Amino acid sequence: MNKHGWTYKKLGEVATIISGSTPKTNIPEYWDGAHFWVTPAELGKSVYIGETERTITDDAVNNTNLTLLPVGTVLLSSRAPIGKIAITTVPMYCNQGFKNIVCSEELNNKFTYYFIGHIVPYLQSLGRGATFKEISKTIVENVKLPVPSMEEQLAIVAELDEINEAIEALQQQVADLDALAQSTFYTMFGDPVTNEKGWEVDKLNAICDVRDGTHDSPSYIEMGFPLITSKNVINGAIDFDNVNYISKEDFDNISKRSRVDIGDIIMPMIGTIGRPAIVKTDKKFAIKNVALIKFVQNSSILNIFLISILSSPSFDAFMKKNNKGGTQKFIALGDIRKLPIILPPIVLQQEFAAKVKAIESTKAEINAQISEMQNLLASRMDYYFD
User: Fold this and answer.
1) Distance between CA 237 and CA 234 in Å, rounded?
2) 254: which residues sit within 8 A by CB, 6+ positions away?
3) Which of 21, 56, 196, 376 is surrounded by the fewest CB atoms within 10 Å?
4) Residue 100 included in any domain
5) Is the pTM of this model over 0.90?
6) How many CA atoms lie within 13 A of 60 on its CB side?
């Protein structure tokens, strides 16, 4: 029993664990049928999932020995990565990257969803494998969880749902503010690709200093100077929590061509192309190889205006249309330098920048509230599940 007096049981005692499989992709008769078929990549957007990107046929079900996942199944990705979760709202099948949980009458699926979400780091620590980590059906079946009465489970779910709904409402406010900033740009300047307002246009390298990062391959150390790559630029922000570090000697050697300052813009060129970020810290770091680009603004263009162009949907589509490569897409430095950039009068750019700064200030206040609510959610889950 735990501190609440609840009995612990193995997950396999109060739920059925179901894996999946992938029908042969070279048999067209197996695909585009009437049955939903989910992959781990589709999880993480919402608590619930009611449709899938691909569907399979009766032949695929019968010949691949797939087991149907009923409505209310807690989907759990077991590899690449471990720990993505969702609850099904329609019957579906899945690929081999899952160990899904079909709850018995003793166990509420939303309660299970919250519990599994809370122990993801623990599940990841149990992963086995050389190429990529994976948790087995046996591992999932042996996970121990508290099993309070159904009345208590539903009360816990109601409390956690209330906090989550508050977080989602605040996140929607942030999304609405992002949309406001984007619509403000289009209202003031029009589409930056079609340039229907007839602004002056110049190549990016004519108005900015456009560089790539270091081509060196320094050794990584436990702590030191961050070396930022494309994986560290996420949705317009720089992630310093999951970076590789280099020594001061290596930093001094490479930072001459890869030096990053407050106000600069860096943008992934490989893999996830675009989604640039303005550097908002005086932390010393470098950028690696051609995975990121740095723009140094000059007096003819403001960084807030420039990043709004580069982040716009039409410009993003334009860059993707001009990318290269097979599996690993990239956009060449020379092509980045030739990107056509509209140049409205600087006074209009300043007016736009002032509006964006006001929006960003409001977003910062809301994000602080989100952090508080997320901390509250984490503490309540610790209380119930630790």
Assistant:
1) 5
2) 214, 216, 218, 246, 286
3) 196
4) yes
5) no
6) 27
